[in-house]
């Protein structure tokens, strides 16, 4: 038998011994990518117009940096914070400024947070103050 014939026979024997049937080895099932979302709104409880500067960062990168102008009693969507099941969760740094008021908070979006119906709400209070509420729906 030639050298190449011996090599072919040897590889065939290894395949039989390993139980190889030509199918790929290992688990090749694919996990479906899912996105988890946490909506963020701004609301004005004061009786005057206000413009709030909202900056959002994730992984050290700026994701959003904008002014949100709110009329008295107005509520508007600012953005949607997202993460996927490929991540262990995405942490966002939210900073908001209104005149001399400043609030900053880290918010992590995970599957559990999204399943609870959690939302982030930037609130201009009735006294013109500023706060950031993050809460699950009841």
Provide an overview of this structure.
This protein has 138 residues and is α+β, with helices and mostly antiparallel strands. The chain is 15% helix and 50% strand. It is built from two helices and eight strands. The strands form two sheets. A four-stranded mixed sheet has the order 4-1-7-8. Strands 3-2-5-6 form a four-stranded antiparallel sheet. The longest helix is centred in the N-terminal third of the chain and has 16 residues, at 3-18. It is elongated, with a radius of gyration of 27 Å.
Compose a concise summary of this entry.
Helix content is 15%, strand content 50%. The chain is α+β, with helices and mostly antiparallel strands and 138 residues long.
Shape call? elongated
- The SSE order reads HEEEEEEHEE
Instruction: Describe the main β-sheet briefly.
Output: 4 strands, mixed
Order of strands, widest sheet: 4-1-7-8
Low-confidence stretches: 19-24
Strand elements, count: 8
Overall mean pLDDT: 85
Task: Output the radius of gyration.
Answer: 27 Å
How far the N terminus sits from the C terminus, by CA atoms, comes to 78 Å
Helix residue percentage: 10-25%
Q: Structural class of the helices, strands and pairings?
A: alpha+beta
The tally of helices reads: 2
Percent of residues in β-strands: over 45%
């Amino acid at each position: 038998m030639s050298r190449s014939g011996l090599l072919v026979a040897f590889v065939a024997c290894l395949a039989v011994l390993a139980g190889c049937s030509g199918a790929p080895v290992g688990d090749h099932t694919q996990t479906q990518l899912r996105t988890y979302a946490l909506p963020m709104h701004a609301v004005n409880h004061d009786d005057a117009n206000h413009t709030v500067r909202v900056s959002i960062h994730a992984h050290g990168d700026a994701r959003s940096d904008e002014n949100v102008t709110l009329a008295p009693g107005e509520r508007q969507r600012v953005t949607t914070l997202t993460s996927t099941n490929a991540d262990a969760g995405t942490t966002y740094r939210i900073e908001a400024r209104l005149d001399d008021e400043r609030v900053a908070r880290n918010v992590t979006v995970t599957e559990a947070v999204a399943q609870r119906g959690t939302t982030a709400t930037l609130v201009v209070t009735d006294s013109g103050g500023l706060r950031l509420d993050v809460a699950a729906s009841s």
